[in-house]
Design a protein that fits this description.
There is one protein chain. 51% of the residues lie in helices and 12% in strands. The protein contains 27 helices and 19 strands. The strands form six sheets. Strands 3, 4, 5, 8, 10 and 13 form a six-stranded mixed sheet that branches. Strands 16-17-15-18-19 form a five-stranded parallel sheet, sandwiched between helices. Strands 1-2 form a two-stranded parallel ribbon. Helix 14 packs parallel to helix 17, helix 20 runs parallel beside helix 24 and helix 20 packs across helix 25.
Length: 775
């Protein structure tokens, strides 16, 4: 490992906390950043750091052999790079001990893992700096549309290993790097090894193993190569020639990156990852029936050994059976996906062969005849083979089941409109059962119900603010219920009582206690009558930067955004960063990160408000509300169209007194911090926000438009459409700009430009007509 500082924290958190590994050994090879210092901080947690300045190009495989000899004897050892996070199938149900126990009982000594390149949605150059955001949250996309597969049993380089007959373990190459850089990287590794004296890991390649009994399942290595610093890394690799074939692949990377510094990795074929189960369904990973049975058994054991609940036995059994069916269906779909891909490759091969034969036949005929009989027969034979494949019973079955998969799982392998989604965790089922035991009004919402979203720069009081709002019987705002869900996927159907309590993985940060997390929302819902609700939504500080995406699927949405002075925000971030165990800011420069986040929030707020023709945003000052919220009551009442009675006013006043008494004493800013704010804070954006707050007192039209409810709804929907069409126009303009930079035939470029220009002109006419119609 060299210069791996951006990865260290998330690497240690994944392997020690999520995977529950016993020990981590880093071998540093001349890092010039803070890698060694940062890794050494975790020494008490079971991290060892070794140092070597020997040239990597000459000793890279000996490094791994040394680690194997010193630390890997007679135990399971995982060999991974700093940018790789390992996971195994059904890890949510199967603990690491049970997983290794299965491998031991079956006598396996090596496990294959497929590398999956993960990348962000936005262009590479604008990706967040590594270490400032969660890699798992930002790098959510993958692409396996261009892969080359081969059975391990047919690979001569792996012939010294044993693979069971029923195991469909493949060596895979290609992926997104093949699409972008015209290379074919090997994606199959054997990172998990049990050294029994016969197995030899990393035999001159990290993609090989010798003398091993390979397990009847494959795992995944999430590979986070595409950081903002990727081009710098490629330059260094090319200069030093440390990698295979004098860093040939890195030369290809650098060639493309130099031509397209704003490279956008995400393609139409890319998908957002929804968990390792999805990779089984797509045929990228394989699990045997024996291993799936282990997952069933482990889930039942955990259920029986867990805390006793009042959940009826039949519900527990139904939950287990549903999960078992889900796993078996995933296996079947994965097998069908592999068979379908094999058939498609065969059809592609025959089609290419058919075209070559037809060309040869035409060439002979153009030359004046000749013996054209052989090519003609060849063409007829190839057409016959294609027809037989496409009309065969197995092909029809595969095609039909593939269609069922698409309708059931959606176009990206996820829950479609009819899908019930992932199975519910037991703790959530328990919480729902408790709620169902209490009498409550039927979940029939008012026709006036509209979406409400609360945001603001982190550490601006958004959490406390929604506690105030939820005291009102006509308002329900969740606590970061869909924090990790893409903003353009947040829609009204997520805000039913049942769906709010239906906690699913990867929708928000995983709480330490799921039962308490669900109970928090259940307690709020228990106080609400659906028929009386006027506003329902979610709170997330990040909403201040993505209001345009939220508006896309939520016509009529309203936004309350909180403002807090940059000095207080940055100081609060710095205080959080003092705790080295803080999962968000521990060990980071919290002060500068706070200023940067505050700047982005102020700019985003201004951009959205100035670009919206409808008054849909209320900006609330932190001090105005929490110190003297009685002053803000008229604003909030008018903005939401609700009466705030004496009971709510009294509870807000009491909460403010408690809020003030519980506040932490603030540390005064140092001269260096004051200078940093003077130099970096966006005072222009702040001045606009403060002016907006001040004008709201005297100009209600800034945040409220008078008119009938039907008219306002029509205007909301009209503007939402305008936002979507304008966004599409911008996308087409960007596409046109990229097209102009491409090196293609002039005639083809002219046609494409004319087509794109026509599309853009039509969309602009639609936008202008929509906007002018609202005036």
């Amino acid at each position: 490992m060299r210069d791996g500082e951006p990865y260290i924290e998330q690497f240690v958190e994944h392997y020690l906390n999520d995977l529950e590994a016993r020990h981590i050994v880093f071998l540093d090879n001349g890092s010039s950043d803070g890698t060694v210092e940062l890794a050494s901080r975790y020494a008490k947690d079971g991290v060892t750091v070794l140092l070597s300045k020997l040239p990597y190009r000459e000793y890279k495989y000996l490094f791994k052999q040394y680690l194997h000899e010193r630390f890997g004897r007679e135990r399971w050892t995982l060999y991974v790079d700093a940018d790789e996070l390992f996971d195994y199938p059904y890890s949510e149900a199967v603990g690491l001990g049970a997983f290794l126990g299965y491998l031991n009982r079956k006598g396996y000594t090596a496990v294959a893992a497929q590398m999956l390149d993960m990348f962000p949605e936005r262009p590479l150059i604008s990706a967040s700096v590594a270490g400032t955001v969660s890699l798992k949250e930002e790098h959510r996309f993958y692409d396996i549309s261009q892969l080359w597969r081969s059975s391990i049993k047919n690979n001569t380089h792996l012939s010294g290993n044993h693979v069971e007959d029923h195991a469909v373990i493949e060596t895979i190459s290609g992926g997104i790097r093949s699409l972008l850089f015209d290379v074919a990287p090997k994606l199959t590794k054997f990172p998990l090894i049990f050294s029994d004296g016969r197995v030899t890991p990393s035999n001159n390649s990290s993609h090989r193993v010798d003398g091993a009994r390979i397990a009847d399942l494959s795992c995944v290595l999430y590979h986070y190569k595409f950081l903002q610093s990727f081009r710098d890394h490629a330059r260094r690799a090319v200069k030093e020639g440390n990698y295979f074939a004098d860093s040939f692949q890195y030369k290809k990377y650098l060639e493309v990156l130099e031509k397209s510094p704003e490279l956008h990795i995400k393609r139409e074929t890319s998908r957002e990852l929804d968990g390792s189960d999805e990779l089984i369904e797509r045929g990228f990973l394989f699990v045997s029936e024996d291993y799936a049975t282990l997952a069933d058994t482990e889930e039942r054991r955990l259920l029986n050994e867990g805390p006793q609940t009042e959940t009826p036995e039949e519900i527990r059994e139904a939950l287990l059976r549903a999960r078992q069916r889900e796993r078996r269906q995933g296996q079947e779909i994965g097998e069908l996906s592999r068979r379908l891909e094999e058939r498609e490759r065969e059809i592609g091969r025959l089609t290419r062969q058919l075209r070559r034969s037809e060309r040869r036949l035409r060439n002979r005929e153009n030359r004046g005849g000749g013996e054209a009989g052989d090519p003609a027969r060849e063409v007829r034979e190839l057409k016959r083979q294609l027809h037989e494949i496409r009309t065969s019973r197995s092909w029809r079955l595969i095609t039909k089941l593939q269609g069922i998969k698409t309708r059931t799982l959606g176009p990206k392998g996820k829950g479609g409109p009819e899908s019930e989604g992932p199975s519910k965790p037991l703790a959530q089922v328990v919480a729902e059962q408790r709620e169902k035991s209490e009498p409550r009004s039927s979940e029939r919402f008012s026709e006036e119900l509209r979406p409400l979203f609360v945001g603001g720069c982190q550490r601006s009081g958004t959490t406390a603010f929604i506690d105030y709002l939820n005291e009102h019987e006509e308002i329900l705002v969740c606590h970061e219920r869909y924090k990790r869900l893409r903003r353009d996927r947040i829609a009204p159907d997520l805000f039913t009582f049942e769906r709010i309590l239906d906690y699913r993985p990867r929708e928000t940060n995983k709480p330490q206690n799921i039962d308490l997390y669900v109970k928090r929302h259940a307690d709020i819902i228990a106080r609400k009558d659906p028929a009386r609700l006027r506003w329902i939504g979610d709170k997330n500080p990040g909403f201040i930067n993505t209001m345009d995406l939220l508006l896309k699927n939520n016509p009529g949405a309203r936004f309350i955004m909180l403002y807090r002075p940059v000095e207080e925000v940055a100081e609060s971030w710095a205080d959080r960063a003092k705790n080295p165990d803080d999962p968000w800011l521990g060990g980071k420069d919290g002060f500068s990160l706070g200023v940067e986040a505050w700047n982005e929030a102020m700019r985003s707020l201004r951009t959205f408000v100035e670009g919206s023709d409808l008054p849909r945003v209320l900006v609330v000052s932190y001090h105005d509300f929490f110190v003297r919220n009685e002053r803000c009551i008229p604003l909030i009442s008018r903005f939401l169209g609700v009466e705030i009675d004496d009971e709510v006013r009294s509870s807000w006043a009491d909460a403010s007194l408690k809020f003030q008494s519980d506040r932490r004493a603030k540390d005064p800013l140092t001269p260096e911090q004051e200078l940093f704010i003077r130099e970096h804070a966006d005072r222009e954006a702040e001045a606009w926000v403060l002016d907006r707050i001040e004008r709201q007192w005297s100009e209600p039209s800034l945040y409220v438009r008078e008119g009938t409810e039907s008219l306002l709804r029509a205007l909301d929907e009209n503007e939402a459409l305008a936002w979507r069409t304008a966004r599409r126009a911008r996308e087409l303009e960007e596409e046109l700009s990229r097209e102009r930079r491409r090196r293609a035939k002039p005639k083809d470029n002219a046609k494409k430009r004319a087509s794109l220009s026509g599309k853009i002109a039509r969309i602009r006419r639609i936008v202008n007509s929509r906007l002018s119609g609202k005036g």
